[in-house]
From TrEMBL:
GO terms for biological process: SRP-dependent cotranslational protein targeting to membrane, translocation. Belongs to the GTP-binding SRP family. SRP54 subfamily. Its main location: cytoplasm. It catalyses: GTP + H2O = GDP + phosphate + H(+). It comes from Gossypium australe. It is found in: Cytoplasm; Endoplasmic reticulum. The M domain binds the 7SL RNA in presence of SRP19 and binds the signal sequence of presecretory proteins. This is Signal recognition particle 54 kDa protein.
């Protein structure tokens, strides 16, 4: 790993520290405080930053630093590794298998990019030879079905929804049944969101999940939600078995530090990121570039 991989403020902090003649606890603390500030600015949850600081202090041996070992390298490595560790919940997400039916339910607040991400996810798999299908179980937002229909039509992906039916559970079940009969291997259920976390939303998610028995529930979060990420992710996890996270709008200014909170709250990995409004602006999540950006 090279210094350039670490972001501006972090590399500056390490640079300043390595310029100091004596590396004592005070100098290391100053450096860690600088890094803490940068991570908080990137929306990493305060508790995670504090725990990371404690871990780094344990890992970084001041005697080694004082003895003139490559200080920069030791600290860089420790920070980088700690952040990567936070993003690794220790077990991979359920991976659907081509040719075998899987139901994947998407959850997230309104505006998080859920509907857009459903199509991106479907399109990504379709390009690889899968037979995906989209079910619109969002009966709350006027225009939700039209949006999904438009996206699906553009991508030539079969879809199911209703302008009349107001029960999201009924639509979800009908859609899943229909596409199972049609031998689709990836049935994607888009659900309602609300502007804020509220009991009715979580109850609805619980019911849709219970009725459709998804193999995977994906929590979609907007990279710019900042410190709200932990509570939001946790609230969804408490009502449905969230098993993966997708972070959207990574093409914007936000560094996406909330993703660390979402992983911590759901104990699930980030699997993809959204990098634009278009269908193909979607990437498999890669820990190292993400952490580098976070530190910038
Ligand atoms: P939903 O309410 O959660 O279903 O959100 P939508 O899918 O309707 O998305 C809300 C807005 O965010 C729309 O204008 C999308 O085009 C936009 N959006 C979604 N994902 C991304 C992304 O990765 N990057 C950018 N720039 N915009 C996105």
């Amino acid at each position: 790993m090279v210094l350039a991989q670490l972001g501006g403020s972090i590399s500056r902090a390490i640079q300043q520290m390595s310029n100091a003649t004596i590396i004592d606890e005070k100098v290391l603390n100053e450096c860690l405080n600088e890094i803490t500030r940068a991570l908080l600015q990137s929306d990493v949850q305060f508790k995670l930053v504090r725990d990371m600081q404690t871990n780094i202090k344990k890992i970084v041996n001041l005697d080694d630093l004082a003895a003139g070992h490559n200080k920069r390298k030791i600290i860089q490595q420790a920070i980088f590794n700690e952040l990567c560790k936070i993003l690794d919940p220790g077990k991979p997400a359920f991976t659907p298998k081509k040719g075998k039916t899987s139901v994947v339910m998407f959850v997230g607040l309104q505006g998080s990019g859920k509907t857009t991400t459903c199509t991106k996810y479907a399109y990504y798999h379709q390009k690889k030879g899968w037979k995906p299908a989209l079910v619109c179980a969002d009966t709350f937002r006027a225009g939700a079905f039209d949006q999904l229909k438009q996206n699906a039509t553009k991508a030539k992906i079969p879809f199911y929804g209703s302008y009349m039916e107001s029960d999201p559970v009924k639509i979800a079940v009908e859609g899943v049944e229909r596409f199972k009969k049609e031998n689709c291997d990836l049935i994607i259920v888009d659900t309602s969101g609300r502007h804020k976390q509220e009991a009715a939303l979580f109850e609805e998610m619980r019911q849709v999940s219970e009725a459709t028995k998804p193999d995977l529930v994906i929590f979609v979060m907007d990279s710019s939600i900042g410190q709200a990420a932990f509570d939001q992710a946790q609230a969804f996890k408490q009502s449905v078995a969230v098993g993966a996270v997708i972070v959207t709008k990574m093409d914007g200014h936000a560094k996406g530090g909330g993703a660390l909170s979402a992983v911590a709250a759901t104990k699930s990995p980030v699997i993809f990121i959204g990098t634009g409004e278009h269908m193909d602006e979607f990437e498999v999540f890669d820990v190292k570039p993400f952490v580098s950006r976070l530190l910038g």
